[in-house]
Amino acid sequence: MVFVFRQLEEKCREQNKGLYITFVNLTKAFDTVSRTGLWRILERLGCPPKFLQMVIQLHQNQQGHVRLNSDVSEPFPISNGVKQGCVLAPTLFSIFFSKMIKQATEDLAPEDGVYVRYRLDGSLFNLRRLQAHTKNQERLIRDLLFADDAALVAHTEQALYRITSCFAETSSLFGLEVSLKKTEVLHQPAPHDMYIQPRISINNTGLKATQQFTYLGSIISYDAKIDKEIDNKLSKANSSFGRMYKRVWKNKNLRATTKTRVYRAVVITTLLYGSESWVLYGSHTRLLERFHQRCLRTILDVHWTDYVSNVAILEQAGLPSIEAMIVKFKLRWVGHVHRMDDHRLPKIVMYSELSSGYRERGAPRKRYKDSLKRTLSACDFDVQGWSDLATDRSAWRCRIQEATTKFQEERITAANNKRLRRNNPTQTPTPHPCRHCSRICRARIGLINHERACRQIHGQPLDLR
């Protein structure tokens, strides 16, 4: 759902539409499910009576204890909620929650929500195919659900207020309670609109307005940028790295290969969580690579005074660069989305655009499609035919492994050549002498600025030839 969120933010920004989001927090959602209502829902959905009776018996005569230090309380009956730790609990709650959402949105107006127009039978990068009048489909998006985390979306504040009110009313009917203290509202204005703090309330209680929200471990910002997300990931990865400083990284009894495996399993996964949905700029990549190098130099006990290059550090650790890892994760994720069923929301959003809105003239901010297209080209994929290869999962993964290995090798070669040119310059810079005072400038732009001053002194016109 993080990918869907970032795609919605990007498309609203690209097509000059505002986006309002309510991040709903339910109080102890799994523990307050009405079991009587859940059995009725399963019965109406056509659940076989024998299986339904088995599920009911699993939840009958359930008791709990409270343990405080070494003391255990008397048993007490548990009559609400699904069983914690049971393999059926997530499925039962999803059925219950989906039925509640369906009932909550029955009375809403058709324009309440976000409409996207999509088409799955063409190229991802060909936007002209979405201009057809007969082959496109539309999808109304009002809610994004993952377990008990719900987010409600709309283009206007009034529409979001109606959706949030209906959700809160239906939740109370189903025995669930919305936490008014933890439920927050985020507003992403259109590119040329001023930011206005949204005012959404439930039962005459105003909800907190925020400019960033942590949803499923990723930071969603009101300006659709990932600067805060990168800073947050660096902070968390640095914290996890620091907690193992003495016990792992400086432990003389552990081999370097063991340390790098722990580093990749703990620190890298924390750092690159959700990176499949990122749209990175060079500044972001440099921050991530700098952190990567600092950690590896600590693990390998290489001091900065040793003058060891970054390429040598990666080869010694046996790890690729952060950029190569992100390329691999992104290509694997895109292939996974392409293989999804046609009704899945991530696939629909990736191949879609907003049904309303317009694009301004000129180049927009870097989009996910732009980043993906550049990644495919850098890895020698056919930009137009990559989807055919991605249909076969095993072939796609093998091709990604080959492409990322080649990408890393080319990156190392480019870094070595750059260092060689810097350390062994073969060409002398072209001199740029001043015609008036014979001063030598290293660059032509410096010559132009210098001759402006010389013109005032010598009274001669400026010659830009």
From TrEMBL:
Residues 1-220 form the Reverse transcriptase domain. InterPro entries: RT_dom (IPR000477). Pfam families: RVT_1 (PF00078). PROSITE patterns: RT_POL (PS50878). It comes from the Eukaryota. This is LINE-1 retrotransposable element ORF2 protein. It comes from Elysia marginata.
